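thought: fold this chain, then report.
action: predict
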Amino acid sequence: MRSLSEDVYDVFIIGAGISGIGCACHLKEKHPGKRWAILESRDDLGGTWDLFKYPGIRSDSDLYTFSYKFRPWSSPNAIASAEEIKSYMNDTVDHYGVRDSIHYGHRVLEVEWQSHTALWMLLLDTPQGQIRVKSKWVFSATGYYDYREGYRPEFLNEELFQGEIIHPQLWPEKLDYTGKKVVVVGSGATAVTLIPELAKRAAHVTQLQRTPSYVLSRPRKDPLASALSKIAPAKVVHSITRWKNTRQQRLFYAFCQQFPGLARKMLTSGVRNQLPPSYDVDLHFNPPYDPWDQRLCAVPDGDYFKAVSNGAASVVTGGIERFTENGIVMTSGASVEADIVILATGLKVKLFDGIPITVDGARVSIPDCFVYRGCMLSGVPNFNFAIGYTNSSWTLKVDLVCEYFCDLISELDSTGAAICVPKGPSLNTQSKPLFDFQAGYVKRSAHLLPKQGDQFPWTMSSDYVLDQREFTKKPALGVDLTILPKPVVCAEATV
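observation:
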Protein backbone atom coordinates (compact mmCIF):
# COMPACT_ATOMS: atom_id res chain seq x y z
CA MET A 1 0.00 0.00 0.00
CA ARG A 2 1.41 3.34 -1.10
CA SER A 3 1.02 6.41 1.10
CA LEU A 4 -1.49 9.04 0.03
CA SER A 5 0.05 12.11 -1.55
CA GLU A 6 -0.92 15.76 -1.47
CA ASP A 7 -1.65 15.68 -5.20
CA VAL A 8 -5.21 15.76 -6.52
CA TYR A 9 -6.83 12.35 -6.99
CA ASP A 10 -9.52 11.71 -9.57
CA VAL A 11 -11.62 9.55 -7.23
CA PHE A 12 -11.63 8.58 -3.59
CA ILE A 13 -13.69 5.45 -2.89
CA ILE A 14 -14.89 5.23 0.71
CA GLY A 15 -15.08 1.61 1.84
CA ALA A 16 -13.40 -1.65 0.77
CA GLY A 17 -16.45 -3.87 0.89
CA ILE A 18 -18.26 -5.51 -2.01
CA SER A 19 -19.26 -2.09 -3.47
CA GLY A 20 -15.90 -0.35 -3.07
CA ILE A 21 -13.92 -3.18 -4.58
CA GLY A 22 -16.40 -3.39 -7.44
CA CYS A 23 -15.97 0.32 -8.15
CA ALA A 24 -12.18 0.01 -8.04
CA CYS A 25 -12.18 -2.84 -10.56
CA HIS A 26 -14.44 -0.90 -12.92
CA LEU A 27 -12.19 2.17 -12.70
CA LYS A 28 -9.08 0.07 -13.26
CA GLU A 29 -10.56 -1.41 -16.43
CA LYS A 30 -12.35 1.61 -17.90
CA HIS A 31 -10.13 4.46 -16.71
CA PRO A 32 -6.61 3.05 -16.38
CA GLY A 33 -5.11 6.54 -16.50
CA LYS A 34 -7.12 7.90 -13.58
CA ARG A 35 -5.69 8.28 -10.11
CA TRP A 36 -7.86 6.84 -7.37
CA ALA A 37 -7.66 5.16 -3.98
CA ILE A 38 -9.88 3.26 -1.55
CA LEU A 39 -10.14 4.63 1.99
CA GLU A 40 -11.04 1.86 4.45
CA SER A 41 -11.48 2.58 8.15
CA ARG A 42 -11.04 -1.07 9.19
CA ASP A 43 -7.90 -3.21 9.05
CA ASP A 44 -9.00 -5.52 6.26
CA LEU A 45 -11.21 -5.58 3.19
CA GLY A 46 -14.58 -7.30 3.04
CA GLY A 47 -17.01 -4.87 4.66
CA THR A 48 -19.95 -6.91 5.95
CA TRP A 49 -18.09 -10.16 5.32
CA ASP A 50 -15.20 -9.09 7.51
CA LEU A 51 -17.24 -7.33 10.19
CA PHE A 52 -19.63 -10.07 11.24
CA LYS A 53 -18.04 -13.02 13.03
CA TYR A 54 -21.04 -14.90 14.39
CA PRO A 55 -21.28 -18.66 13.75
CA GLY A 56 -22.59 -19.74 10.37
CA ILE A 57 -22.60 -16.29 8.74
CA ARG A 58 -23.39 -16.66 5.05
CA SER A 59 -25.18 -14.97 2.18
CA ASP A 60 -28.94 -15.06 1.87
CA SER A 61 -28.68 -14.31 -1.86
CA ASP A 62 -27.28 -16.71 -4.43
CA LEU A 63 -23.69 -15.92 -5.34
CA TYR A 64 -24.27 -16.07 -9.08
CA THR A 65 -26.15 -12.79 -8.70
CA PHE A 66 -24.38 -11.50 -5.59
CA SER A 67 -20.95 -11.86 -7.20
CA TYR A 68 -19.68 -9.37 -9.77
CA LYS A 69 -20.83 -9.61 -13.37
CA PHE A 70 -17.21 -9.29 -14.49
CA ARG A 71 -15.78 -11.94 -12.13
CA PRO A 72 -17.37 -15.44 -12.30
CA TRP A 73 -18.32 -17.22 -9.10
CA SER A 74 -16.51 -20.56 -9.21
CA SER A 75 -17.47 -22.25 -5.92
CA PRO A 76 -20.08 -25.02 -6.18
CA ASN A 77 -22.01 -23.34 -3.36
CA ALA A 78 -24.66 -20.90 -4.55
CA ILE A 79 -25.41 -19.98 -0.92
CA ALA A 80 -21.93 -19.32 0.45
CA SER A 81 -20.22 -18.67 3.76
CA ALA A 82 -18.62 -15.36 4.67
CA GLU A 83 -15.24 -17.07 4.38
CA GLU A 84 -15.92 -18.07 0.78
CA ILE A 85 -17.23 -14.61 -0.11
CA LYS A 86 -14.22 -12.87 1.41
CA SER A 87 -11.88 -15.27 -0.41
CA TYR A 88 -13.66 -14.38 -3.67
CA MET A 89 -13.18 -10.68 -2.91
CA ASN A 90 -9.48 -11.19 -2.20
CA ASP A 91 -9.07 -13.11 -5.45
CA THR A 92 -10.83 -10.28 -7.31
CA VAL A 93 -8.60 -7.64 -5.75
CA ASP A 94 -5.48 -9.53 -6.80
CA HIS A 95 -6.77 -10.38 -10.28
CA TYR A 96 -7.47 -6.72 -11.05
CA GLY A 97 -4.38 -5.41 -9.28
CA VAL A 98 -6.11 -3.03 -6.91
CA ARG A 99 -4.77 -4.27 -3.55
CA ASP A 100 -2.03 -1.64 -3.33
CA SER A 101 -4.63 1.10 -3.73
CA ILE A 102 -6.48 0.18 -0.52
CA HIS A 103 -5.52 2.35 2.47
CA TYR A 104 -6.49 0.63 5.71
CA GLY A 105 -7.05 2.46 8.98
CA HIS A 106 -8.11 5.58 7.05
CA ARG A 107 -11.42 6.83 8.43
CA VAL A 108 -13.10 9.69 6.61
CA LEU A 109 -14.19 12.31 9.14
CA GLU A 110 -15.72 14.86 6.78
CA VAL A 111 -15.93 15.75 3.09
CA GLU A 112 -16.16 19.33 1.86
CA TRP A 113 -16.86 20.44 -1.71
CA GLN A 114 -15.25 23.68 -2.88
CA SER A 115 -16.76 25.05 -6.08
CA HIS A 116 -13.95 27.56 -6.62
CA THR A 117 -11.50 24.67 -7.11
CA ALA A 118 -13.99 22.01 -8.25
CA LEU A 119 -12.51 19.66 -5.65
CA TRP A 120 -13.50 17.67 -2.61
CA MET A 121 -11.42 18.16 0.53
CA LEU A 122 -11.46 15.07 2.75
CA LEU A 123 -10.38 15.07 6.39
CA LEU A 124 -9.00 11.64 7.31
CA ASP A 125 -8.03 10.00 10.58
CA THR A 126 -5.07 7.75 9.75
CA PRO A 127 -2.52 5.70 11.73
CA GLN A 128 -0.14 8.67 11.29
CA GLY A 129 -2.69 11.24 12.48
CA GLN A 130 -5.19 13.48 10.73
CA ILE A 131 -4.51 14.58 7.17
CA ARG A 132 -6.40 16.36 4.38
CA VAL A 133 -6.54 15.06 0.83
CA LYS A 134 -8.16 16.31 -2.39
CA SER A 135 -10.11 14.63 -5.17
CA LYS A 136 -12.35 15.48 -8.10
CA TRP A 137 -14.93 12.83 -7.19
CA VAL A 138 -16.08 10.95 -4.10
CA PHE A 139 -17.67 7.50 -4.42
CA SER A 140 -19.32 6.33 -1.19
CA ALA A 141 -19.29 2.55 -0.90
CA THR A 142 -20.18 2.44 2.79
CA GLY A 143 -23.55 0.72 2.48
CA TYR A 144 -26.36 2.02 4.64
CA TYR A 145 -25.93 0.65 8.14
CA ASP A 146 -23.85 1.51 11.18
CA TYR A 147 -20.71 -0.62 11.31
CA ARG A 148 -19.97 0.27 14.92
CA GLU A 149 -23.19 -0.89 16.56
CA GLY A 150 -26.42 -2.68 15.74
CA TYR A 151 -29.97 -1.94 16.82
CA ARG A 152 -30.19 -2.83 20.49
CA PRO A 153 -33.57 -2.46 22.25
CA GLU A 154 -33.56 -2.43 26.06
CA PHE A 155 -35.65 -4.95 27.97
CA LEU A 156 -37.02 -4.76 31.50
CA ASN A 157 -34.74 -6.15 34.22
CA GLU A 158 -31.87 -7.06 31.90
CA GLU A 159 -29.46 -6.33 34.74
CA LEU A 160 -30.86 -9.29 36.72
CA PHE A 161 -29.83 -11.84 34.10
CA GLN A 162 -26.87 -13.93 35.28
CA GLY A 163 -25.78 -15.06 31.82
CA GLU A 164 -24.36 -13.23 28.82
CA ILE A 165 -26.33 -10.90 26.52
CA ILE A 166 -24.77 -10.54 23.06
CA HIS A 167 -25.52 -8.70 19.84
CA PRO A 168 -24.35 -10.63 16.75
CA GLN A 169 -22.63 -7.54 15.31
CA LEU A 170 -20.27 -7.59 18.31
CA TRP A 171 -19.76 -11.34 18.61
CA PRO A 172 -17.17 -12.28 21.28
CA GLU A 173 -14.31 -14.20 19.71
CA LYS A 174 -14.01 -16.70 22.57
CA LEU A 175 -17.69 -17.27 23.36
CA ASP A 176 -18.26 -20.92 24.29
CA TYR A 177 -21.87 -21.96 23.94
CA THR A 178 -21.20 -25.72 24.09
CA GLY A 179 -23.79 -27.43 26.27
CA LYS A 180 -25.51 -24.11 27.04
CA LYS A 181 -29.14 -23.08 26.74
CA VAL A 182 -29.14 -20.34 24.12
CA VAL A 183 -31.99 -17.97 23.33
CA VAL A 184 -31.93 -16.06 20.04
CA VAL A 185 -34.21 -13.01 20.03
CA GLY A 186 -35.27 -12.15 16.48
CA SER A 187 -36.80 -13.60 13.33
CA GLY A 188 -34.68 -12.17 10.51
CA ALA A 189 -31.81 -13.45 8.41
CA THR A 190 -29.30 -13.35 11.27
CA ALA A 191 -31.53 -15.41 13.55
CA VAL A 192 -32.26 -18.15 11.01
CA THR A 193 -28.57 -18.29 10.15
CA LEU A 194 -27.43 -18.57 13.77
CA ILE A 195 -29.93 -21.14 14.99
CA PRO A 196 -28.88 -24.23 12.98
CA GLU A 197 -25.19 -23.51 13.61
CA LEU A 198 -25.63 -22.95 17.36
CA ALA A 199 -27.80 -26.07 17.59
CA LYS A 200 -24.81 -28.25 16.64
CA ARG A 201 -23.14 -27.61 20.02
CA ALA A 202 -25.64 -25.96 22.35
CA ALA A 203 -27.76 -27.95 24.78
CA HIS A 204 -30.80 -26.31 23.19
CA VAL A 205 -31.55 -23.20 21.11
CA THR A 206 -34.79 -21.27 21.49
CA GLN A 207 -35.84 -18.65 19.00
CA LEU A 208 -37.93 -15.87 20.58
CA GLN A 209 -39.76 -13.84 17.99
CA ARG A 210 -42.34 -11.12 18.45
CA THR A 211 -43.43 -11.39 14.80
CA PRO A 212 -42.74 -14.30 12.41
CA SER A 213 -40.90 -13.93 9.11
CA TYR A 214 -41.35 -15.78 5.84
CA VAL A 215 -38.68 -18.46 5.66
CA LEU A 216 -37.85 -20.14 2.37
CA SER A 217 -35.61 -23.15 1.87
CA ARG A 218 -33.24 -22.95 -1.09
CA PRO A 219 -30.66 -25.45 -2.38
CA ARG A 220 -27.12 -24.65 -1.31
CA LYS A 221 -25.93 -25.67 -4.77
CA ASP A 222 -27.67 -24.37 -7.88
CA PRO A 223 -28.86 -27.41 -9.92
CA LEU A 224 -28.42 -25.68 -13.29
CA ALA A 225 -24.93 -24.42 -12.43
CA SER A 226 -23.93 -27.87 -11.17
CA ALA A 227 -25.06 -29.47 -14.43
CA LEU A 228 -23.49 -26.82 -16.67
CA SER A 229 -20.16 -26.92 -14.82
CA LYS A 230 -19.57 -30.42 -16.17
CA ILE A 231 -19.69 -29.28 -19.81
CA ALA A 232 -19.06 -25.52 -19.95
CA PRO A 233 -16.36 -23.02 -18.89
CA ALA A 234 -16.83 -21.07 -15.64
CA LYS A 235 -17.69 -17.81 -17.47
CA VAL A 236 -20.48 -19.49 -19.42
CA VAL A 237 -21.85 -21.20 -16.30
CA HIS A 238 -21.77 -17.90 -14.42
CA SER A 239 -23.44 -15.94 -17.19
CA ILE A 240 -26.28 -18.39 -17.82
CA THR A 241 -26.97 -19.02 -14.13
CA ARG A 242 -26.87 -15.30 -13.37
CA TRP A 243 -29.36 -14.60 -16.17
CA LYS A 244 -31.68 -17.35 -14.93
CA ASN A 245 -31.51 -16.30 -11.27
CA THR A 246 -32.07 -12.59 -11.88
CA ARG A 247 -35.23 -13.40 -13.83
CA GLN A 248 -36.40 -15.87 -11.21
CA GLN A 249 -35.87 -13.32 -8.44
CA ARG A 250 -37.80 -10.64 -10.29
CA LEU A 251 -40.65 -12.94 -11.33
CA PHE A 252 -41.07 -14.27 -7.79
CA TYR A 253 -41.05 -10.75 -6.34
CA ALA A 254 -43.62 -9.60 -8.92
CA PHE A 255 -45.76 -12.67 -8.17
CA CYS A 256 -45.70 -11.90 -4.44
CA GLN A 257 -46.70 -8.29 -5.09
CA GLN A 258 -49.48 -9.19 -7.53
CA PHE A 259 -50.89 -12.24 -5.71
CA PRO A 260 -49.93 -11.88 -2.02
CA GLY A 261 -52.56 -14.30 -0.77
CA LEU A 262 -51.46 -17.08 -3.09
CA ALA A 263 -47.79 -16.35 -2.37
CA ARG A 264 -48.48 -16.61 1.37
CA LYS A 265 -50.12 -20.02 0.89
CA MET A 266 -47.18 -21.25 -1.17
CA LEU A 267 -44.60 -20.10 1.38
CA THR A 268 -46.42 -21.49 4.41
CA SER A 269 -47.07 -24.73 2.55
CA GLY A 270 -43.34 -25.01 1.88
CA VAL A 271 -42.70 -24.63 5.62
CA ARG A 272 -45.30 -27.29 6.50
CA ASN A 273 -43.58 -29.76 4.20
CA GLN A 274 -40.36 -29.45 6.22
CA LEU A 275 -41.76 -29.61 9.76
CA PRO A 276 -43.60 -32.32 11.72
CA PRO A 277 -47.32 -32.62 10.84
CA SER A 278 -48.47 -31.28 14.21
CA TYR A 279 -46.27 -28.17 14.13
CA ASP A 280 -48.15 -24.88 14.54
CA VAL A 281 -47.04 -23.21 11.31
CA ASP A 282 -49.79 -20.58 11.45
CA LEU A 283 -48.50 -19.31 14.79
CA HIS A 284 -44.76 -19.37 14.10
CA PHE A 285 -44.38 -18.93 10.32
CA ASN A 286 -47.38 -16.92 9.09
CA PRO A 287 -46.48 -13.21 9.37
CA PRO A 288 -49.16 -10.48 9.65
CA TYR A 289 -47.71 -8.76 6.56
CA ASP A 290 -47.63 -9.84 2.92
CA PRO A 291 -44.64 -11.59 1.29
CA TRP A 292 -41.85 -9.17 0.34
CA ASP A 293 -43.26 -6.32 2.44
CA GLN A 294 -40.13 -7.33 4.31
CA ARG A 295 -37.20 -9.37 3.03
CA LEU A 296 -37.69 -13.14 2.94
CA CYS A 297 -35.28 -15.30 4.91
CA ALA A 298 -33.54 -17.94 2.81
CA VAL A 299 -32.09 -21.05 4.46
CA PRO A 300 -29.77 -23.41 2.54
CA ASP A 301 -31.02 -26.99 2.19
CA GLY A 302 -33.56 -26.35 4.96
CA ASP A 303 -30.90 -26.45 7.71
CA TYR A 304 -32.99 -24.22 9.98
CA PHE A 305 -36.07 -26.45 9.62
CA LYS A 306 -33.99 -29.56 10.31
CA ALA A 307 -32.81 -28.09 13.63
CA VAL A 308 -36.41 -27.30 14.60
CA SER A 309 -37.70 -30.69 13.43
CA ASN A 310 -35.14 -32.75 15.35
CA GLY A 311 -35.73 -30.84 18.59
CA ALA A 312 -32.33 -29.16 18.75
CA ALA A 313 -34.12 -25.83 18.35
CA SER A 314 -37.60 -24.54 19.16
CA VAL A 315 -39.61 -21.44 18.36
CA VAL A 316 -41.57 -19.26 20.79
CA THR A 317 -43.71 -16.46 19.36
CA GLY A 318 -44.86 -13.56 21.51
CA GLY A 319 -43.76 -10.47 23.39
CA ILE A 320 -41.00 -10.29 25.98
CA GLU A 321 -42.18 -8.99 29.37
CA ARG A 322 -38.94 -9.02 31.35
CA PHE A 323 -35.64 -10.74 32.05
CA THR A 324 -35.04 -12.83 35.15
CA GLU A 325 -31.86 -14.26 36.68
CA ASN A 326 -32.26 -17.45 34.64
CA GLY A 327 -33.90 -16.29 31.42
CA ILE A 328 -36.90 -14.47 30.01
CA VAL A 329 -40.59 -14.21 30.93
CA MET A 330 -42.96 -13.76 28.01
CA THR A 331 -46.08 -11.58 28.07
CA SER A 332 -48.04 -14.85 27.97
CA GLY A 333 -46.53 -15.76 31.33
CA ALA A 334 -44.36 -18.54 29.89
CA SER A 335 -40.73 -18.68 31.01
CA VAL A 336 -37.76 -19.49 28.78
CA GLU A 337 -34.52 -20.52 30.49
CA ALA A 338 -31.21 -19.28 29.10
CA ASP A 339 -27.48 -19.24 29.79
CA ILE A 340 -26.84 -16.95 26.82
CA VAL A 341 -29.22 -14.49 25.14
CA ILE A 342 -28.38 -13.32 21.62
CA LEU A 343 -30.21 -10.18 20.52
CA ALA A 344 -30.49 -10.64 16.74
CA THR A 345 -32.60 -7.49 16.71
CA GLY A 346 -31.29 -5.90 13.55
CA LEU A 347 -29.28 -3.03 12.17
CA LYS A 348 -29.02 0.70 12.68
CA VAL A 349 -29.09 2.68 9.45
CA LYS A 350 -26.29 5.18 8.95
CA LEU A 351 -26.03 6.40 5.37
CA PHE A 352 -22.50 7.31 4.15
CA ASP A 353 -21.18 6.09 7.53
CA GLY A 354 -22.53 9.31 9.04
CA ILE A 355 -19.80 11.37 7.36
CA PRO A 356 -20.74 15.09 7.29
CA ILE A 357 -21.04 16.39 3.72
CA THR A 358 -20.50 20.10 3.12
CA VAL A 359 -20.95 22.04 -0.12
CA ASP A 360 -19.36 25.50 -0.20
CA GLY A 361 -19.52 25.83 3.55
CA ALA A 362 -23.13 24.66 3.97
CA ARG A 363 -23.87 21.28 5.59
CA VAL A 364 -25.93 19.09 3.26
CA SER A 365 -29.25 18.01 4.80
CA ILE A 366 -29.51 14.45 3.49
CA PRO A 367 -33.28 14.10 4.17
CA ASP A 368 -33.93 17.17 2.00
CA CYS A 369 -32.14 15.67 -1.02
CA PHE A 370 -33.65 13.58 -3.80
CA VAL A 371 -31.78 10.60 -5.18
CA TYR A 372 -30.83 10.69 -8.86
CA ARG A 373 -30.82 7.20 -10.44
CA GLY A 374 -30.39 5.87 -6.92
CA CYS A 375 -26.70 6.84 -6.96
CA MET A 376 -26.37 10.65 -6.68
CA LEU A 377 -27.90 13.39 -4.50
CA SER A 378 -29.65 16.48 -5.82
CA GLY A 379 -27.54 19.57 -5.34
CA VAL A 380 -24.36 17.67 -4.42
CA PRO A 381 -21.62 17.87 -7.10
CA ASN A 382 -19.32 15.03 -8.15
CA PHE A 383 -20.63 12.63 -5.51
CA ASN A 384 -21.75 9.08 -6.26
CA PHE A 385 -22.80 6.28 -3.95
CA ALA A 386 -23.77 2.63 -4.17
CA ILE A 387 -26.83 1.16 -2.48
CA GLY A 388 -27.86 -2.27 -3.68
CA TYR A 389 -31.27 -3.85 -4.01
CA THR A 390 -33.36 -4.74 -0.98
CA ASN A 391 -35.50 -7.29 -2.83
CA SER A 392 -32.71 -8.94 -4.82
CA SER A 393 -28.95 -9.38 -4.71
CA TRP A 394 -27.14 -6.24 -3.57
CA THR A 395 -24.37 -6.45 -6.13
CA LEU A 396 -26.68 -6.47 -9.16
CA LYS A 397 -27.36 -2.78 -8.56
CA VAL A 398 -23.77 -2.03 -7.55
CA ASP A 399 -22.44 -3.30 -10.89
CA LEU A 400 -24.86 -1.02 -12.76
CA VAL A 401 -24.03 2.00 -10.60
CA CYS A 402 -20.27 1.50 -11.05
CA GLU A 403 -20.63 1.17 -14.82
CA TYR A 404 -22.73 4.33 -14.90
CA PHE A 405 -20.18 6.16 -12.75
CA CYS A 406 -17.39 5.28 -15.18
CA ASP A 407 -19.56 6.32 -18.15
CA LEU A 408 -20.34 9.62 -16.44
CA ILE A 409 -16.64 10.35 -16.00
CA SER A 410 -16.05 9.51 -19.67
CA GLU A 411 -18.84 11.84 -20.79
CA LEU A 412 -17.49 14.71 -18.71
CA ASP A 413 -13.98 14.13 -20.04
CA SER A 414 -15.28 14.24 -23.59
CA THR A 415 -16.95 17.62 -23.01
CA GLY A 416 -14.13 19.13 -20.99
CA ALA A 417 -16.47 19.62 -18.02
CA ALA A 418 -15.28 19.18 -14.45
CA ILE A 419 -18.41 19.63 -12.34
CA CYS A 420 -21.58 17.53 -12.49
CA VAL A 421 -24.55 18.02 -10.18
CA PRO A 422 -28.11 16.65 -10.33
CA LYS A 423 -30.49 19.59 -10.69
CA GLY A 424 -33.32 18.09 -8.67
CA PRO A 425 -36.80 17.04 -9.81
CA SER A 426 -39.55 19.41 -10.90
CA LEU A 427 -41.60 21.20 -8.25
CA ASN A 428 -44.67 19.03 -8.86
CA THR A 429 -42.75 15.80 -8.15
CA GLN A 430 -44.33 13.71 -5.42
CA SER A 431 -41.76 12.62 -2.84
CA LYS A 432 -41.69 9.13 -1.34
CA PRO A 433 -39.49 7.34 1.22
CA LEU A 434 -36.20 6.10 -0.20
CA PHE A 435 -37.11 2.43 0.33
CA ASP A 436 -40.54 0.97 -0.38
CA PHE A 437 -39.87 -1.58 2.31
CA GLN A 438 -41.43 -2.30 5.71
CA ALA A 439 -38.43 -3.73 7.57
CA GLY A 440 -38.02 -2.36 11.09
CA TYR A 441 -34.57 -0.88 10.48
CA VAL A 442 -35.90 1.00 7.43
CA LYS A 443 -38.99 2.39 9.20
CA ARG A 444 -36.92 3.48 12.22
CA SER A 445 -34.62 5.56 10.04
CA ALA A 446 -36.84 6.84 7.20
CA HIS A 447 -36.51 10.40 8.51
CA LEU A 448 -32.71 10.24 8.15
CA LEU A 449 -32.64 9.17 4.49
CA PRO A 450 -32.96 11.10 1.21
CA LYS A 451 -36.22 10.99 -0.73
CA GLN A 452 -37.14 9.54 -4.06
CA GLY A 453 -39.59 10.98 -6.57
CA ASP A 454 -42.41 9.36 -8.46
CA GLN A 455 -40.75 9.30 -11.88
CA PHE A 456 -37.43 8.17 -13.32
CA PRO A 457 -34.63 9.26 -12.92
CA TRP A 458 -35.61 10.42 -9.41
CA THR A 459 -36.64 6.95 -8.26
CA MET A 460 -34.89 4.21 -6.30
CA SER A 461 -35.71 1.42 -8.75
CA SER A 462 -35.79 -2.17 -7.53
CA ASP A 463 -36.14 -3.73 -10.98
CA TYR A 464 -32.82 -5.03 -12.31
CA VAL A 465 -34.08 -5.65 -15.84
CA LEU A 466 -35.48 -2.11 -16.08
CA ASP A 467 -32.31 -0.66 -14.54
CA GLN A 468 -30.15 -2.51 -17.05
CA ARG A 469 -31.92 -0.67 -19.83
CA GLU A 470 -31.85 2.75 -18.16
CA PHE A 471 -28.32 2.67 -16.76
CA THR A 472 -26.74 1.71 -20.07
CA LYS A 473 -28.03 4.91 -21.69
CA LYS A 474 -25.57 7.78 -21.90
CA PRO A 475 -25.75 10.19 -18.95
CA ALA A 476 -28.24 12.99 -19.70
CA LEU A 477 -25.76 15.85 -19.40
CA GLY A 478 -27.50 19.20 -19.38
CA VAL A 479 -30.95 17.62 -18.97
CA ASP A 480 -31.09 16.23 -15.44
CA LEU A 481 -27.43 16.98 -14.72
CA THR A 482 -25.90 20.43 -14.66
CA ILE A 483 -22.32 20.38 -15.95
CA LEU A 484 -19.80 23.15 -15.52
CA PRO A 485 -16.21 23.67 -16.66
CA LYS A 486 -13.39 23.69 -14.18
CA PRO A 487 -13.03 27.13 -12.59
CA VAL A 488 -9.92 29.10 -13.41
CA VAL A 489 -8.37 30.01 -10.09
CA CYS A 490 -6.28 33.19 -10.16
CA ALA A 491 -4.16 34.71 -7.44
CA GLU A 492 -6.90 37.02 -6.20
CA ALA A 493 -10.15 35.85 -7.72
CA THR A 494 -12.06 33.00 -9.29
CA VAL A 495 -13.08 33.65 -12.89
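thought: worth noting. Confidence is low (pLDDT under 50) at residues 489-495.
final: C-alpha coordinates above.
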